[in-house]
């Protein structure tokens, strides 16, 4: 009788370079690929993350079918579903790639011990990071790094040792398959009218990397700040669901014919992802608690109407509104605009960064347990190696600086298309006859600013002093 090994897919929805799958395939066992939809453990994906994941699961299933296999999808509590499935199929082992949220780590550790006690071969692997969060430590403290630059330097010294593997041509299947619940259907929301730009799934991830390295990476170090330019990789949702490994991204970037400066800058962004995971692992309540404790006493205003205006993209500041509307229509927001929009919420409106974090969690296709909370804490100034609180992005100047022609802003705020230059980013400064002739009525066709920039800036600095 052949041996069966369950490969438990989680946030590694790919067949290439998947250490758990590769290891399971190294013997002569038949493979039972499984995904367990467990709502009891880990942070549940927001609406857009869920949309992405559901399509990605369908793609993974198709890729498995093409190799003589299939994906078994079950709902329920992992501690019940997995042992029951093991029993049902007579599996001798379970292999998976690790995740790093605290409750998942606790559950997986207990589960592994329980399975091993029953004589099963239970193995976990690193499939989603370049380095395990406990691997890169500061020589001076022996603990995790708190500052990015020495962290990334230490990572580079360690180097990446793992070899890459290709997707197997065939996957040995059992004689009979256990039952699978129907795969979830991805449901698009009516306002998601730009979703065709995305191709969830492993093929989409590999295509995005190829497009970036062959056509778009040139000038990345500068152009990555321009939201109208196709200058970044847009790999974030693919990385979020593990449709591509960071190790593959590093290897292919290093092999590509590109400027070292652009390649290094791009890889350092992957470094920020590693740093965020290290922060999450060592600070499990990163999404809820300020890393710098003094910020817990910050005098937030938390005005509900202003929060809603920010979410709708109706703050009266076109670059902020463009970003918030891009988010709603595409499930994505360019990094430069994420920083401006987040800073506006936290500093101009004095709304707790956790409100923004939760909204991004719901709306981003790349909403990531580590990157999202670490980035919000970075903008708020309360995180590790964060931007200082008094760095307040000026929403009137950021537009002309990074979207000088207004191409990005006008895509999402078309009611201001007739404006240009600095006026586009401060429409209240436009001449009244221009506004009239272009049928722009502030407070009617486009909102008046919900706060005055200078006054809001002064108020933010005053609040910070009170800490
Ligand atoms: C307020 C705020 C919230 C954010 N929330 C998320 C989130 O939920 N998920 C997410 O993946 N990124 C988040 N980011 C980081 C960044 O905006 C996105 O990773 C980036 O815009 C994704 O586009 P890209 O793949 O084209 O990036 P590229 O420039 O091509 O970068 C390559 C990869 O590096 C990683 N990366 C880039 N910048 C960062 C960063 N600052 N921190 C951590 N990793 C980074 C991502 O995995 C990204 O795919 C957030 C940033 C801010 C300011």
Task: Give a brief description.
The protein is mainly alpha-helical.
Entry keywords:
single chain; 467 residues; mainly alpha; Rossmann fold; five-stranded parallel sheet; 6% strand; globular; binds flavin-adenine dinucleotide
Could you explain how this protein is built, in words?
The protein folds into three domains: 4-128, Rossmann fold; 129-162 and 199-283, Serine Threonine Protein Phosphatase 5, Tetratricopeptide repeat; 293-465, DNA Cyclobutane Dipyrimidine Photolyase, subunit A, domain 3, CATH 1.10.579. Helix content is 46%, strand content 6%. The protein has 20 helices and five strands. It has helices at 19-25, 47-65, 78-89, 102-117, 148-158, 202-216, 220-223, 236-240, 246-255, 260-282, 304-312, 318-330, 335-348, 353-363, 371-380, 395-402, 407-412, 421-425, 432-437, 453-465; strands at residues 4-9, 30-37, 72-75, 93-97, 121-125. Strands 3-2-1-4-5 form a five-stranded parallel β-sheet, with helices on both faces. It is globular and about 80 Å long. The protein starts with a strand and ends with a helix. The protein binds flavin-adenine dinucleotide.
